[in-house]
Amino acid sequence: MSHHLFLLSPSDTPLYSLTHYSSKPAQTTATSPLASNLPSWSTSAFAGTLTALSGATSATQAHHAQGGTVRIGGGQDRHVIQMIANASLDVIEEIVRKDNMMYLKSVDKFNEWTVSAFVTPGNMKFVLLHEARNDDGIKSFFHEVWELYVKTMLNPFHTAHTPIRSTVFDARVRASAKKYL
Amino acid sequence: MHAAPHPRFSVLSASAVQSSEHLSPAASSTRFSLPSAPSINTNATASKPAVPRQTIYDRPLNKIRAAEVSASAFSFLFSEVVQYTQKRVNGINDLERRLNTLGYRVGLRVLELMSYRNEATAKAPKREIRFLPALMSIHTQVWRAVFGKPADAIEKSVENADEYMIIDNDPPITRNISVPRDMSQLSCSSFTAGIVEAVLDGLGFPARVTAHNTPTETLPNRTTILIKLEKSVLDREEALKT
Amino acid sequence: MAIWGLWVINKAGGLVYQRNFGDGLPHLTSNEYLVLAGTLHGIHAITARLSPTGSSSGANVISGETFKLTILLTPTGTKFVLLTSLAENTADTVLQKVYEAYADAVMKNPFHTPEMPIRTEGFDSRITAIMSG
Question: Membrane-spanning regions, if any (chain A) (predicted)?
Fold first, then answer.
């Protein structure tokens, strides 16, 4: 069972992403590649659209490649994941205007994916794609990511639009994901 | 054997403290001492890999008393900031704009850190989404976090519905600044205006924020932070009213 | 008891601040004040060198028949000079307060250039406050 985390700047630039395979018992088959759950036309259709998008998300891809202990099936799947995360941003933006909670659980759904989000007061968005319900775990996970993000913000060399490349940050987020997801 | 750095040096990394020891004559003389004598230099370098460098991620975010900065130290720093900026601009407007930009970068961090300190212990952390409560929290929370005291007043412009003012009778950061007469338009509180602008922007209330000197007979340092909201903010407030 | 005047002399001997209180002092031109301050700077240097008992901070008080000069020397070489009546016994505490006001209103002011004449409104008002008790 996998989780996908994206940190997006107030202008929706991806600053950090993480794919986490949970060791906890999954209800669905853990290894099921996304493509098999989609209608046969969908992956190829996405592949075309998303090549265009990939320019904008190259920062996160580069991160994937070097950080890369985990990789999803193929490049296309990763694109689909990013597509879902991006698509949910509109929904999140809509809710953020009316709801004063930072933790927004299950804001969007796409096939087997549920999207939960956490929005900081500075309009930094944490988006998590997950398959199973785990509200408390996700909430605690977001809370720790929030703390780590605030600490990152305190670095004078970091701005709200700088991709987060700190290895310590990465290690802490991974540890937190392991603990809660 | 390597003593913990004096608390005053705690802002320096451990390696910086060690390198200063290399430069001091006392430390270098130990190089020529008998091998049996404990040497500060060798101990320090040997223990280095064992103690990984402490990062910001290892420190708690909560405010501690000892972490307060001396007002004098800040005054000197801010004085240098103004001098540095002044050398690189043409005219007062430019100077105020640069100070505003610097304040903006501070404000982004203030907002995130302050919210974390206020909300982290709450069961369900919240953000401000209405303008007036946000303005109130700037007046009290932000001011308290940055200056250690709330601002003195909030006013709403009578003529313009999109203008609000935060008033500080004696802004701590400009307390020691005397602006020369030929620059009397200048308000160094533009820095504060930048902080306010960043906080409003972050919360989703884009605005143009400027600082103005509004002295009175008894309060020569009185400063008004003028907030001019973008139209979208007023529209949204209108929509949320229902 | 009266305080008549305050001078601030920079480390090179230049008069950077001069103010009279009341009408006790004769009116001199700014050029004359500059010369007097330079002379005092020289005298002070001589007294600092004359000390028979090792290093000295130089003259602290110079008294005349009707008035005295009290001098406060800071570690950076700036001198604060207070012209008072002979009976005035608060000169030292006043000078200490002046030094404090100088550190706050002058040194922390980004529009002041070190070693240059002090034209800072904040300092003027602080001095006025100190002199009026």
Answer: none
